[in-house]
């Protein structure tokens, strides 16, 4: 085994439903030990991609390798290396949290300690409660616990924190960070861009079945999309200007204002969310035929 | 191209996990009120109703001339109905529900062998079916004064008819679970089949009173044979004359039920999928 082999490798992945192309030629690699965030609007193809990689769906064409294996032909040995947190399900839940985790732990050759996992997802007080009696957010934490109980090499998290309160989300982030530190490779989809920014090493953005950008979290969208924005109010009129030298601009504005304070002054560095929204909006504004680089240029204007 | 090595799972885990599935399945079964009522207690309720409602009717008499009570007359049919409900109805509805509520999808993403899952389901049916049969026998014996057989041969026949019947019924339930498109439609698909079979197979209506053509139709399905096998155990020898051809025909019971078992196994093997891919 070499560390340079990617944990996940996807080339030209396509998925058609009749004439509709849910995925239209997606390519990316996820390196071992990396946390990769797959972002995109609803229906963009995130879940289709992740379910192809989990072995739940067959691809129409293209190449896919997950831990070196074609996921449409994954064996039980292969599944033992995976942890899968699906989007929420509606199971009857007639077992307790502890019963469910102990039962699933038995499926894996090298499971984590059940009580430790219950504690890690913050369900100690609910360990003996039937799953059907838990709240939506608590059930989601059981899903996460089941995803990590088998000590996976590769963990799939499909919108894992839907229904979490802010405190649970922070606790979940700590858990994922500790898994990262143990070397777990993680593929994450989420609608919370702060979550992607906090946990992800790299991100890919999918829209309309195409990968419109990919890169490290602090480089995605290109340098132009990260140019800070200075906003202020001049004689009752809101003004804004993009500049890579915001301090110089503010100093000049103060000078021009006779040395007095500027009204409503803000210097904003675009967050991942701003950059993401810019990329998706540019794509949806008729950019369906342009390539990712063209999209970047448009965003920068 | 790739040099990633994936460790092999240890051998022999299929049976061990099957055992663990049985515990999980039985636990879940008794925690769901609808399955307990409609599959577990239903034959007991029906036996109680028939035994009480028809307590003044005569059903014939045994070799010593004493009358056969309604409870004694209906017990074999209810035992056979229990096999069908605990196996076929229970599993067909249960698995269709598990397919639509995401249980199977979750299991499909784990290294649980399909065979272990089947062992769990069939084991659940064996355990709950045996408890159900025991409850029927206890109620018939204690509350309705039915004289149960004392000869070991009768109990031996009971044992193999029960085991073969309950296993066949379970396997057919797994096979049938593939038919409903959703959990919600499962009962609508399964219950009519089970009801019609019970009416034409001598569970609620005396089989000898059905027209020949209907007897022949019923003879193509396993429930008629399970009920016949149970009658041979619990009814007096004098009742044998009322059977088709005037014989219990235990060889026929074994052959037809086994045939359905084999058909069911093949259908399961060919059609069972954890999930409907690309639905």
Q: Give the proportion of residues in helices of chain B.
A: 55-70%
User: β content of chain B, as a range?
Assistant: under 5%
Distance between the termini of chain B: 33 Å
Largest two-chain interface: A-B, 40 and 33 residues
Tally of separate domains of chain B: 1
If strands are numbered along the chain, what order do they take across the biggest sheet of chain A?
5-6-7-3-8-9
Secondary-structure element pattern of chain A, one letter each:
EEEHEHEHHHEHEHEEEEHEHH
Task: Round the Cα radius of gyration of chain B to an integer and report it.
Answer: 20 Å
Principal-axis shape of chain B: elongated
Low-confidence stretches of chain B: none
Radius of gyration of chain A: 22 Å
The count of DSSP E runs of length 2 or more, i.e. the number of strands of chain A, is 12
CATH class annotation of the largest domain in chain A: Alpha Beta
Strand element count of chain B: 0
CATH architecture grouping of the largest domain in chain A: 3-Layer(aba) Sandwich
Please describe the biggest sheet of chain A, giving its number of strands, its sense, and whether it closes into a barrel. Answer: 6 strands, mixed
Integer average pLDDT of chain B: 91
What is the percent of helical residues of chain A? 25-40%
Quaternary structure: heterodimer
List descriptors:
heterodimer, A: 301 residues, alpha/beta, Rossmann fold, 2 domains, 6-stranded mixed sheet, 10 helices, 33% helix, disordered C terminus, B: 279 residues, mainly alpha, 69% helix, elongated
């Amino acid at each position: 085994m070499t560390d340079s082999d990617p944990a996940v490798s996807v080339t030209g992945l396509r998925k058609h439903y009749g004439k509709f192309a849910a995925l239209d030629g997606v390519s990316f690699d996820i390196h071992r030990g990396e946390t990769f965030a797959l972002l995109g609007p609803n229906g963009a193809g995130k879940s289709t991609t992740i379910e192809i990689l989990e072995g739940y769906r067959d691809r129409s064409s293209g190449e896919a390798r997950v831990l070196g294996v074609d996921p449409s032909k994954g064996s039980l040995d292969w599944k033992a290396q995976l942890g899968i947190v699906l989007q929420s399900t509606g199971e009857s839940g007639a077992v307790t949290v502890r019963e469910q985790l102990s039962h699933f732990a038995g499926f894996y050759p090298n499971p984590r300690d059940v009580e430790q996992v219950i504690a890690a997802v913050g369900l100690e007080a609910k360990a003996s409660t039937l799953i059907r009696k838990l709240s939506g957010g608590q059930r989601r934490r059981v899903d996460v616990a089941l995803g990590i109980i088998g000590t996976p090499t590769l963990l799939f998290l499909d919108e894992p924190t839907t229904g979490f309160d802010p405190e649970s989300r922070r606790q979940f982030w700590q858990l994922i960070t500790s898994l990262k530190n143990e070397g777990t490779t993680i593929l994450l989809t989420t609608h919370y861009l702060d979550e992607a920014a906090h946990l992800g090493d790299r991100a890919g953005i999918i829209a309309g079945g195409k990968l419109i950008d990919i890169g490290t979290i602090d480089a995605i969208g290109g340098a132009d999309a990260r140019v800070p924005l200075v906003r202020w109010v001049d004689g009752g009129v809101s003004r804004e200007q993009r500049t890579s030298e915001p301090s110089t601009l503010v100093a000049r504005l103060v000078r021009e204002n006779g040395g007095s304070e500027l009204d409503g002054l803000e210097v904003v560095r675009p967050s991942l969310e701003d950059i993401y929204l810019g990329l998706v909006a540019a794509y949806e504004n008729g950019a369906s035929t342009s390539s990712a680089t063209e999209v970047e240029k448009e965003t920068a204007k | 191209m790739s040099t990633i090595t994936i460790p092999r799972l240890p051998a022999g885990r299929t049976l061990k996990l099957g055992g663990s599935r049985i515990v999980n399945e039985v636990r879940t079964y008794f925690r769901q009120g609808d399955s307990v009522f409609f599959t577990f207690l239903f034959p007991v309720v029906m036996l109680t109703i028939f035994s009480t409602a028809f307590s003044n009717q005569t059903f014939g008499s045994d070799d010593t001339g004493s009358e056969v009570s309604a409870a004694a007359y209906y017990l074999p049919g209810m035992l056979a109905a229990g096999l069908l409900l605990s196996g076929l109805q229970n599993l067909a509805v249960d698995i269709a529900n598990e397919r639509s509520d995401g249980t199977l999808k979750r299991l499909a993403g784990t290294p649980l062998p399909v065979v272990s899952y089947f062992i769990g389901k069939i084991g659940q049916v064996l355990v709950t079916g045996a408890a159900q049969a025991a409850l029927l026998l206890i109620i018939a014996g204690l509350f309705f004064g039915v004289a149960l057989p004392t000869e070991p041969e009768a109990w031996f026949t009971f044992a193999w008819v029960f085991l073969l019947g309950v296993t066949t019924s379970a396997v057919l339930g797994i096979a049938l679970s593939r038919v409903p498109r959703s959990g919600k439609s499962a009962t609508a698909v399964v219950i009519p089949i089970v009801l019609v079979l019970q009416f034409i197979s001598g569970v609620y209506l005396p089989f000898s009173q059905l027209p020949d053509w209907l007897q022949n139709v019923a003879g193509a399905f396993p429930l008629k044979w399970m009920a016949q096998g149970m009658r041979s155990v619990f009814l007096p020898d004098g009742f044998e004359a009322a059977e088709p051809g005037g014989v219990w025909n235990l060889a026929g019971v074994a052959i037809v039920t086994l045939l359905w078992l084999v058909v069911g196994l093949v259908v399961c093997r060919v059609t069972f999928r954890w999930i409907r891919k690309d639905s």
